[in-house]
């Protein structure tokens, strides 16, 4: 049971986090909000306003009442319950606190609740209300949470009360007013033990219809109780059978009427908002039987979004007056994932002769989190235009909102005819305005039905419909054509007004005052050309009191000046009319709404009339021009660009800063057209972002640039037999590599008659010519010397001979090529002499500014012998450095023989052709080419003579874009090789050989010392033994021998 509260009321916890109120989408129509009838509940928190109904009382007292349900109202004093709910009857007065409680539970003294069997606490009496539409009709009120005690079981079956036209219990009407249970409390929730009858309700002349969404384990049901008008004791209950479909809530909402599926039979329309999680609306017919009949489902429409609660509110109303009632379904929890600003939806299904399509004809949506569609109600023909209308409540949009849609022959538009916000109600204090709505009853007897709007704020409001006036307004201006030189105050505007009411009951109005406003030439871009004589301005406002007959008024105007620049544009007059309303009363009594009529929306539109100024264009005053145009692109020297296949070609380089568009416009007669003045003649030129407007020549022509366009004024008028030639100058700063074309469009316009004006397209094909900078030092000097060395003896490039190194620099002034192509350097490299001996040995090619650090061509061109590259060491040897000369230094040929020229073209040198692509280059790249002069070849073949070696480097473009081109840039380089001065140069032993030799010498010396030590070379006689021997010899006094003497001397 609490789930229902969460869906209809507990939703507040989410949707009260609202967006700010959106701007009003339309102006008010005839539902009045200035003089509302506001009523307040007696008890705070009673939900006074959860349901509302308009009731006409004819028994006892003739009056109209506003019935309001308060399902959480305190219980009557004699009831042993806290909250039972009840219904209040509110008279149509200005007193907000004069509503009276009906005390339905105790109104029948014979059926006061028995506390042993009835649990009335929390029964929510007043959750649904209905009034019979027939004169003297009864009222119906239900409490769906009424519990019947069955021994130890509690059955929440719901209970409804019917009371007479005077809202009292009438014993004579016991067939209707007796409290019969429509659900069987003897069964559990799988049958009817939890049926919640009365959550929705409707009443006709012969039947009561109750929604019971809890039947059959929340499948739900729609129960019809038919009363036989001829027999007070004959009634039949009709129900939907158990469809074996659980938790879909059939009966959540209900509407009944004829003309839905059948012209004659009543159709029951009921919502099941949880059917397949998307919701559905079922339409069935009552088949009476004995003792119990059946409501058979004949048609069903289903929702489109899970959780939208499609079917939580329903209404049936004939919107297009075709005799068939159309279906309106609310889905208040709908949301649009793609448009976060939408929340809640209403689906309109147009009746197709007793059937409905699966897809809605119109889907209306409300603001986010607004619960748009919580209430959808047929409200009668509010504006009396012959078509029924309906209202939609969005209680959680700001302070709440009600939108009114008017029916029409064409159906329903997306825009409502009137929007009323809760904050618009003076003294309303609403926060959930629009939670419930009732309409279709004329409470103030002016023939326009009024509506009641409820809320969850313990307050309701009655909004009365204002009478609608059908206004007939006429505006005529004479003369139709004026001659400025003959017109002083010759212009006359005539305004005529008359009206009728949309109903005959309001036609007794004697006189109505209208305010009218005539605007003359207000739409002109220039100052108004005419003004009213009395007002001295071009706008006049006045009042006219109109009764039964038409009233007219004439107004005089004059030209502001006899010299009129704009003779083509008509002088337009606009008439707008509004009502002058009387001053409201002091507020001590209910305002008479008939004193405040409103003009019908379709009649409130401004009326239009126009006159023309005589031009020099013949008796018909229509100028037929013959504007013709040619255009072509030229360079800054006015030379047209060449054409190819009918299109001009522009060879663009960064040196080209501007280009011109030469335009010729003429207005001269041709064979089939005359050439009268072309008024307001303009030329509009649109161009791409690659061009920017610079200027126009001649300067007397006025051209105004805008974003991507320039508008030139040719003349007003551009005279007959006139022609003009001018040039529009553009800057080319936006042209980029890869741009294939520049497309412009020229469009002539004039206010004169000429129906053959067509836009002229001019396309300039762009051929982009790259002009990169390619720098190469073209003169180098080096030497050769030493001895002939075999190729097999060479381990590193330093063994070959003198080094040669030069740099190539490539740079672009334009933007990088990117994926449009790349540049490459093609070398013709003199690697050998004619006898195939090595000449210039290529060591390496280092690159910077590219995606690869080295150029490695195919066919093993670089370092083919795979020698160690000495150039990669951090320090270049002094000997190598001494060979590199500045490119400004001229070679000194020391040889006595004539120098030899070795080049590829003569065949004296053999050349290899290879390519270094500059991939990934941004705007610049650098190549460092390192090579060695083959010293042995020089010594063998050119000893005593100088040698000039010549090669080539060519910069070229590789691209598949035909619009990008570049001329190949070829640079020659020459290496001058001389014998070294002063004979052979001393060959320096490499450092590593010196270090290794020194270490080897140290090791060898160590080995020799160890060997001598092992042989005893370093052993000597012991000194002590020597002294002892000498002592013995002294004692013996012997003469020393010759050997001893020699030893002693030592």
From TrEMBL:
<comment type="similarity">
    <text>Belongs to the integrin alpha chain family.</text>
</comment>
<protein>
    <submittedName>
        <fullName>Integrin alpha-3-like</fullName>
    </submittedName>
</protein>
<dbReference type="GO" id="GO:0007229">
    <property type="term" value="P:integrin-mediated signaling pathway"/>
</dbReference>
<feature type="repeat" description="FG-GAP">
    <location>
        <begin position="418"/>
        <end position="480"/>
    </location>
</feature>
<dbReference type="InterPro" id="IPR013649">
    <property type="entry name" value="Integrin_alpha_Ig-like_1"/>
</dbReference>
<dbReference type="GO" id="GO:0008305">
    <property type="term" value="C:integrin complex"/>
</dbReference>
<dbReference type="GO" id="GO:0009897">
    <property type="term" value="C:external side of plasma membrane"/>
</dbReference>
<keyword id="KW-0130">Cell adhesion</keyword>
<keyword id="KW-1133">Transmembrane helix</keyword>
<keyword id="KW-0732">Signal</keyword>
<keyword id="KW-0401">Integrin</keyword>
<dbReference type="GO" id="GO:0005178">
    <property type="term" value="F:integrin binding"/>
</dbReference>
<dbReference type="InterPro" id="IPR018184">
    <property type="entry name" value="Integrin_alpha_C_CS"/>
</dbReference>
<feature type="signal peptide">
    <location>
        <begin position="1"/>
        <end position="28"/>
    </location>
</feature>
<dbReference type="InterPro" id="IPR032695">
    <property type="entry name" value="Integrin_dom_sf"/>
</dbReference>
<dbReference type="GO" id="GO:0098609">
    <property type="term" value="P:cell-cell adhesion"/>
</dbReference>
<dbReference type="GO" id="GO:0007160">
    <property type="term" value="P:cell-matrix adhesion"/>
</dbReference>
<dbReference type="InterPro" id="IPR048286">
    <property type="entry name" value="Integrin_alpha_Ig-like_3"/>
</dbReference>
<feature type="domain" description="Integrin alpha first immunoglubulin-like">
    <location>
        <begin position="465"/>
        <end position="615"/>
    </location>
</feature>
<dbReference type="InterPro" id="IPR028994">
    <property type="entry name" value="Integrin_alpha_N"/>
</dbReference>
<dbReference type="Pfam" id="PF01839">
    <property type="entry name" value="FG-GAP"/>
</dbReference>
<keyword id="KW-0677">Repeat</keyword>
<dbReference type="Pfam" id="PF20805">
    <property type="entry name" value="Integrin_A_Ig_2"/>
</dbReference>
<feature type="repeat" description="FG-GAP">
    <location>
        <begin position="359"/>
        <end position="414"/>
    </location>
</feature>
<dbReference type="InterPro" id="IPR013519">
    <property type="entry name" value="Int_alpha_beta-p"/>
</dbReference>
<keyword id="KW-0812">Transmembrane</keyword>
<keyword id="KW-1015">Disulfide bond</keyword>
<feature type="transmembrane region" description="Helical">
    <location>
        <begin position="991"/>
        <end position="1013"/>
    </location>
</feature>
<dbReference type="InterPro" id="IPR000413">
    <property type="entry name" value="Integrin_alpha"/>
</dbReference>
<feature type="repeat" description="FG-GAP">
    <location>
        <begin position="296"/>
        <end position="358"/>
    </location>
</feature>
<keyword id="KW-0325">Glycoprotein</keyword>
<dbReference type="Pfam" id="PF20806">
    <property type="entry name" value="Integrin_A_Ig_3"/>
</dbReference>
<feature type="domain" description="Integrin alpha second immunoglobulin-like">
    <location>
        <begin position="617"/>
        <end position="759"/>
    </location>
</feature>
<dbReference type="GO" id="GO:0050900">
    <property type="term" value="P:leukocyte migration"/>
</dbReference>
<dbReference type="InterPro" id="IPR013517">
    <property type="entry name" value="FG-GAP"/>
</dbReference>
<feature type="domain" description="Integrin alpha third immunoglobulin-like">
    <location>
        <begin position="779"/>
        <end position="979"/>
    </location>
</feature>
<keyword id="KW-0472">Membrane</keyword>
<dbReference type="GO" id="GO:0033627">
    <property type="term" value="P:cell adhesion mediated by integrin"/>
</dbReference>
<dbReference type="InterPro" id="IPR048285">
    <property type="entry name" value="Integrin_alpha_Ig-like_2"/>
</dbReference>
<dbReference type="Pfam" id="PF08441">
    <property type="entry name" value="Integrin_A_Ig_1"/>
</dbReference>
<keyword id="KW-0675">Receptor</keyword>
